[in-house]
């Protein structure tokens, strides 16, 4: 209080008056007395608040809650209970509480970006740590694989080293065993020789015990020395002979080898002559082969040229499958016909199907290029005429045209006039179109082909179907009116129109 008073009123205002000192002493005494009462006897309400706070904190400890807001909540509740009970100090305590909470909220608000930044950094570092762990995991996995591979290599090397060492030891053991066997056998042989010499010495001592010592020792030494010298000289001569005549063959073996050599020379000469003959035959055959290859290449080129320039032969065996009537009718159609005629037969079959399927014919128009008997704009109905009907109509046309002596019309105009006279004029175009399409398709029939060629002016008008029938009819009338037999003068008429070439 003194410090706050000095700060508010200045250092000079702080004067130690007796009344002020008495007031402070009484106040301090009251505060001390109140504190002593509180410490000596605690109120029941304080105990309840402390018990409540302790229970809440223990509960949070049991829940293992680390959130500071939740741990601060019991203190807040205790403080609110405390404020509610002190009615007089409630506004002051509430303002203090609000000020502290406002300050805390401001601090929290200022720290919120840092918290978000910390969260972001935490996530980034967690991702980095996970990436590093993943990389380390891959590296560890790779290192483990390398370790396993190296362990396998080491194990394999160890096995190879062990196998080599075992093989070397086995080989060494085998050599040692062989050496041991040889030494053992030599030792046994030496022991046997020693025993034999001992037995011989014992036998000699038993047979001539006194004569052995009668020999002159000097003489024996001289004999031994001479024997050793002769042995050395013999060994030197043997070595010299081996050096000089080691590669010399005995005469018997030499003669046998020479004989075999001569036989082989004769066989080689025969094989040389045979090889020369084979070489000549080979050269001849090789030349023939080259000539044959050239001829073959030339023939291949000619065949390729022929294949390129010639049309392949049609496979007529496929036609009975599509021709109406099957194989029997096809055999009837192709009898005595060449390939060109067979093509016409197939075209007729295709055209016949087309005619049956065609209900109307499109009109060709009224232009001058269109024949007079086909000039029509709209579609024309198909009459579906048979070949026999068309042939009968054509024959009747030739017959009526031959009977008309003064007919000067060309065949297309006469054909149209004939159709209009013999059939209804409204359906004349239907008849002309149907007849025209029929004779256009069925070209194998001679009557239809001639009529079509003359009608389309592909050939000059034949005098036989026009002039000759007309003269025959007029001649027939004259002969009949005169009562002369037809057969007697028919030859003269034929000679007039068909004279023989001289």
Question: What does this entry look like structurally?
Answer:
The protein has helices spanning 2-9, 18-40, 44-63, 68-85, 90-207, 217-245, 251-309, 326-334, 339-357, 387-403, 411-422, 428-441, 446-455, 463-482, 486-497, and strands at 360-361, 380-381. It has 502 residues and is mainly alpha-helical. Among the domains are: 86-199; 250-310; 358-463, no CATH class. The protein has a two-stranded antiparallel sheet. Helix 4 (68-85) packs antiparallel against helix 5, helix 10 (387-403) crosses helix 14 and helix 12 (428-441) packs across helix 13 (446-455). The termini are far apart. The model is unreliable at 1-40, 462-473 and 484-502 (pLDDT under 50).
H/E topology pattern: HHHHHHHHHEEHHHHHH
Overall, the morphology is flat
Helix content estimate = over 70%
> Tell me about the biggest sheet?
2 strands, antiparallel
Euclidean distance between termini CA atoms: 174 Å
Major sheet: order of its strands?
Answer: 1-2
The residue ranges in which pLDDT falls below 50 over 5 or more consecutive positions are 1-40, 462-473, 484-502
Protein name: Translin-associated factor X-interacting protein 1 N-terminal domain-containing protein
GO cellular component, one term: cytoplasm
InterPro entries: TSNAXIP1_N
Keywords: Coiled coil
């Amino acid at each position: 209080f003194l410090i706050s008073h000095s700060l508010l009123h200045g250092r000079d205002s702080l004067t130690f008056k007796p009344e002020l000192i008495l007031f402070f002493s009484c106040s301090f005494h009251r505060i001390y007395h109140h504190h002593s009462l509180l410490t000596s006897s605690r109120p029941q309400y304080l105990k309840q608040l402390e018990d409540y706070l302790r229970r809440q904190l223990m509960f949070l400890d049991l829940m293992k809650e680390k959130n500071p807001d939740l741990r601060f909540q019991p203190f807040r509740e205790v403080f609110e209970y405390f404020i509610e009970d002190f009615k007089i100090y409630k506004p002051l305590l509430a303002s203090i509480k609000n000020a502290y909470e406002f300050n805390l909220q401001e601090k929290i608000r200022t720290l919120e970006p840092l918290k978000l930044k910390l969260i972001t950094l935490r996530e980034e570092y967690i991702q980095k740590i996970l990436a590093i762990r993943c990389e380390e995991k891959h590296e560890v996995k790779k290192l483990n694989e390398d370790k396993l591979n190296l362990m396998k290599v080491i194990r394999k090397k160890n096995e190879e080293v062990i196998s080599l060492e075992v093989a070397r030891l086995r080989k060494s053991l085998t050599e040692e065993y062989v050496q041991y066997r040889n030494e053992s056998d030599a030792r046994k042989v030496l022991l046997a020789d020693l025993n034999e010499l001992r037995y011989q010495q014992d036998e000699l001592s038993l047979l001539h015990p006194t004569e052995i010592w009668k020999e002159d020792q000097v003489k024996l030494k001289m004999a031994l020395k001479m024997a050793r010298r002769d042995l050395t000289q013999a060994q030197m001569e043997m070595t010299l002979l081996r050096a000089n005549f080691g590669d010399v063959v005995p005469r018997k073996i030499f003669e046998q080898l020479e004989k075999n050599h001569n036989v082989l020379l004769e066989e080689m000469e025969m094989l040389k002559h045979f090889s020369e003959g084979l070489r000549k035959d080979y050269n001849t055959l090789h030349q023939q082969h080259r000539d044959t290859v050239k001829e073959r290449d030339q023939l291949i080129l000619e065949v390729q040229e022929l294949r390129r320039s010639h049309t392949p032969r049609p496979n007529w065996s496929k036609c009975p499958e599509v021709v109406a009537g099957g194989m029997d009718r096809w055999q009837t159609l192709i009898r005595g016909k060449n390939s060109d005629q067979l093509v016409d037969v197939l075209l007729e079959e295709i055209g016949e199907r087309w005619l049956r399927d065609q209900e109307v014919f499109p009109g060709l128009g009224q232009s001058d290029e269109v024949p007079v008997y086909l000039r029509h704009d709209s579609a024309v109905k198909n009459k579906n005429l048979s070949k026999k009907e068309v042939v009968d109509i054509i024959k009747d046309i030739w017959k009526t045209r031959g009977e008309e002596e003064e007919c000067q019309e060309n065949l297309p105009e006469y054909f149209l006039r004939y159709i209009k006279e013999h059939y209804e004029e409204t359906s004349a175009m239907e008849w002309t179109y149907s007849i025209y399409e029929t004779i256009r398709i069925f070209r194998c029939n001679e009557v239809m082909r001639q009529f079509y060629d003359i009608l389309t002016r592909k050939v000059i008008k034949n005098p036989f179907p026009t002039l000759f029938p007309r003269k025959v009819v007029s001649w027939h009338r004259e002969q009949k009116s005169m009562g002369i037999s037809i057969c007697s003068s028919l030859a003269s008429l034929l000679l007039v129109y068909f004279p023989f070439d001289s």
